[in-house]
Amino acid sequence: MNDHPHISEQFDSELQVLQSNFAAMGGLVEAQVQDAMQAFKNVDLALAQSVRSREERVNEYEIEIDQETTTIIARRQPAASDLRLLIGMLKSSTDLERIGDEADRIAKIMTKGRPYAPTLDELLPILSEVAKLENLASQMLRESLNNFARKDEAGATKTIAADKEVDSVYRAIVESCRNGMANFPDHVDSYIAIIWVARSLERIGDHAKNIAENVVYSVRGEDIRHHGTATQ
Amino acid sequence: MTIENRDGDSMNTTNVAIEVPVPQSAVEVAPAPHEWRDEDICIEVSDLSLAYGETAALTNISMQVVRQRVTALIGPSGCGKSTLLRCFNRMNDLIDSVRISGRIELNGMEIHAPTVDVAQLRRRVGMVFQRPNPFPKSIYENVAYGVRLQGRIPKSELDDRVEWALKNAALWEEVRDRLNESALGMSGGQQQRLVIARAIAIQPDVLLLDEPASALDPISTSKIEELIHQLKTDYTILIVTHNMQQAARVSDYTGFLYLGNLVEYDTTNIIFTNPTQKQTEDYITGRYG
Amino acid sequence: MATSETTEQDLSIQRQSLRVWWQSGDPWIWLTSAAVAVSVTAVLGLVGLLAVNGLAHFWPSEVIAIKHESYGQQTTILGELSEREFIARRQFLEANPQYAGNVANTVERWLLKTGNRQIDPPDFRWVFTHDVVEQSVPTDVVVLERTEWGNAYGYLTAIKQQGMPLETSDTWAELQSRIARSESIREAIDQLQEDQISSINYEIEAIRLEKRRRQLDGVTDFSDLEANETELQAEYVLVENEVFRLTESLERDSLSLTLADGTETVIPISTVIQAWRPNQMSLRQKVGMYFKNLWNFLTDDPREANTEGGIYPALFGTVLMVLLMSLLVTPFGVVAALYLREYAKQGPFVQLIRIAVNNLAGVPSIVYGVFGLGFFVYLVGGTIDDLFFPEAKPAPTFGTPGLIWASLTLALLTVPVVIVSTEEGLTRISRDVREGSLALGATKAETIFKIVLPMASPSILTGMILAVARAAGEVAPLMLVGVVKLAPTLPIDGNFPYLHLDRKFMHLGFHIYDVGFQSPNVDAARPLVFATALLLVVIIIVLNLTAITLRNRLEARYRASIN
Lengths: 232, 289, 563
Description:
The complex is a heterotrimer.
Chain A: H1 9-42, H2 45-76, H3 80-111, H4 124-150, H5 153-183, H6 188-220, H7 227-231
Helix pairs in contact in A: 1-2, 1-3, 1-4, 2-3, 3-6, 4-5, 4-6, 5-6
Chain B: H1 8-11, E1 41-52, E2 55-66, E3 70-74, H2 81-87, E4 98-106, E5 109-110, H3 118-124, E6 125-128, H4 139-149, H5 155-168, H6 172-175, H7 188-201, E7 206-210, H8 218-231, E8 236-240, H9 244-250, E9 253-258, E10 261-267, H10 268-273, H11 278-284
Parallel strand pairs in B: 3-8, 3-9, 6-7, 7-8
Antiparallel strand pairs in B: 1-2, 1-4, 4-5, 9-10
Chain C: H1 2-23, H2 26-55, E1 63-70, E2 73-88, H3 89-95, E3 106-113, E4 124-128, E5 132-136, E6 141-146, E7 152-161, E8 164-165, H4 171-217, H5 223-250, E9 253-258, E10 264-268, E11 272-276, H6 283-299, E12 302-303, E13 308-309, H7 312-343, H8 348-360, H9 365-388, H10 403-428, H11 431-439, H12 444-473, H13 476-481, H14 508-517, H15 522-558
Antiparallel strand pairs in C: 1-2, 1-5, 2-3, 3-4, 6-7, 6-11, 7-8, 7-9, 9-10, 12-13
Helix pairs in contact in C: 2-15, 4-5, 7-10, 7-12, 8-10, 9-10, 10-12, 11-12, 12-15, 14-15
């Protein structure tokens, strides 16, 4: 990637501000996911409530990044790596916002959904699976943001590969829940809640994968999306 | 491409084929260099070097220019892009101390061959300059000038040719009522289109444009760019420009020159989204390495 | 204490403000505008001086009769007051030691134009005002302008035909009608002499030369020529007889004039050009006569060793020579400039040539005259005579000063100006336009002739303007290569080839010198010198204005493309 500064220092500082906004948004979203899961695990309504209240900030970040990117494209007419970086950031900010939505959704299960009991013994194996899924998804999210910040194309490729594991853990959780619901019909609400959470974590993994793909595009100028479906 | 209606299996036995829209290409995509066929090549430059006295201006340039396409030459000031352009109609011959080696073939004819008449070559390779340079004559006389140089021609035929050239330069509607007025009274943008009309009036194969819009306002620039787009159906166009966005807008192929070297030459899409050379990247993105 | 402080402060403020004024640049504006004012005043003063001194000459001023007494002798004189002067008493007494009367501190004296040169030369006389006894403006004074002896002043007493006094009720009207008659006869004689006699002479001369040519070629058969010659000679005798007859009838009338001192003199009417009574004329009549005199000055031939009459041949010669010079110098200068600027390889050698050309403009003009005489007249002209006009020898045809040599010499004198100016014009034409033409497949020559030269035409004209201004005022070299005091014929006439490049001609500049400094009658000639000088200035202004107008038009046409 390009390390030389632009002739226009103004352009450089605009890009810098945009990148730091993006990083801040990533940090915020990461915290949201973490807090939502924390609230879920501990049935902490207050924490869930605070996650929900911060959702608004995530949206603000997205709008801000959209506007800044549009302005820079209009005023600087960026080309090549600059253009790809901006496009990558624009698209990734959408993904980050979606991740924020998923965190909100997890929080919503507690504030709006039917009561569930995460302390039941029958649920413990599944909950440990969920914790594993959470680890994997958070890892992907953190990695993809790091990749973006460091323009680390090789790391991004690894991050993309990690999505497969997320998917398989998710499928295992869904399978376990299906069995659990058959065996313990009293706890259906809890199972549903777990499925919701797992579903959100899986989506978070997908979005993190998108972000990593954008990193590859930004760095290499190569569109690696949908290769699985397009070429196979 | 069709897919089968999923409900069709259960609801009725006939397969209803529906048209699935395929995304259209919004931007015209020119064939990549590896797709060029021999008959597409209008100009072939091989190992061209040029020096003013002891100072080398161009070093070992090899490139092919595709017929009826717009090829842009970009690069920082003094990189040799104008010098290269002026090689194609041997305008550099006017400078005493120039030494040229290598070959330039126009439709297979070596233009430096001793049998080539420079005046004839320049009738086949028209040129438009940076600053509008109409002659201090009437609009009509400006366009007729080059035609008249080729010999006597009946008045009616000349009239037709002038009208044709002005129409092709998108100027006819603006000047049809004042053909006998001085060309110097026109606006800069009109003058530049007049100069283009003057160049195409002698029906060349190739048009060389040396920063044709650098002295013009944005509206006139857009008109010139639109004109270039229309003209490429009939002419092979080479354009030198300082304005990278202009090169991106009008050209199919772009060559980046730096210190007399052709650093990178590819489709404009590649050059402006994903150039391979770092020098190109730095120049395109406004960096200096 | 307090006061001195204030003054010091004031002073420093003053010094400050002076410095501010100096730094503001105002002094420069004043200085430069003063220079312009001086130049304008000088030019206007020059033209004004010429106009006042020259143009007054044509006014029919009143004639005064003065009775004056000096050294006990009383005389009456008639004349026009042409100058007043005051001289100091001492100077007067030194000049007139015998003067007995009382003398004032300053003495006024008048210069009177008294005319009647045939009786009482000179025709100008100084009169001291303290000698004047009586002064009057007699209404019936007659002034006669004559073809010889200058003006005559007196009282008309009688008109005579064949020497016999004529009984007539209105002598004045009779005089006018007889002057008109003699005028028309004179014109008829001139016509015969200028047209027929001169063309017969021209043909006879041509036959003589043809004979000589045949002799040189060894042919001895002149029969056809001789027949022609006899015919021409017979024709000549006829015309000559007619001239004699007319001259005789011209001498029929005379008039008798009573002069101021009461003596009577007889003047043949054939010598009278016009007669007027200035003291009876109204202002309108005087104005009419003024313009008639002015017109005659421009269109008449000179008389009396150039001190009277018009300057038409000089005017004609000057304009013709300048036009011919322009025709020669322009193509030559333009071609030279084209080579230097467009074709020659720029380098130290071309630079050297350029410096040499510039320096040529600084060579004194008389040197060009000597060169023109030695090279053009003797060498080129002599060679032309040897090759083409051997029959006229030993009389030279082109081997003598003449119009063409004068024009060529002046062309040579002014060619640097044209070259420099044209070169400047050529360099100002932007490379863009030249390349525009070349890029359309034009050759270099096509580009030069179709684009570059038309665009350089304003500069070429500027060069021509400067050349004309220089050439029209040049006199010294012309005296060596073609200008004469009095040319018998104009360089253009009705005889083939109409424009006679070998003829000598008259020139206003030389005319001024001749009339002003070579004339026997300085007082009479002085107004003519001024009038001629004014005319020369006016001609140069007119030629320049014409060229400048033309140049401005061309410039407006090509303005936008000269960057």
